[in-house]
Amino acid sequence: MDELTAWARGNYKYLFQECTDFQVEMVHEILSKFPKLIDPNRETEQADPFVVALGLERRDGPQKSLVPLEVVVVSQERLTPERRTAKKKVIIPEVCRHYNLPCITLIDMIAREGWKF
Prior knowledge:
By secondary structure, the protein is mostly helical. The chain has helices at residues 3-10, 12-15, 21-33, 48-60, 81-85, 92-98, 106-113; strands at 73-74, 103-104.
């Protein structure tokens, strides 16, 4: 077992949460609207619809904050002009756009947060 795997296993309960009913409901809705977001032939789990569902829950769900928070999804996928006309796999930014949920890249997040290295 490598160091990263050992760290992730030791911090699992802090990194991951059980899916809520709201998230499961949203995943069903997302996949009914965007079935190409996942590959039905893939044998491993696919997180993309759950990432969007978590963002929607934080923004709109029953446990949202009393103080409005800006919810932003971070993904390495990008919308491009060519992408908008292609009939390929659906990507997270396309789904976020549909739900009016901001989506930025990791580099954009680092710049936005003002991180210095």
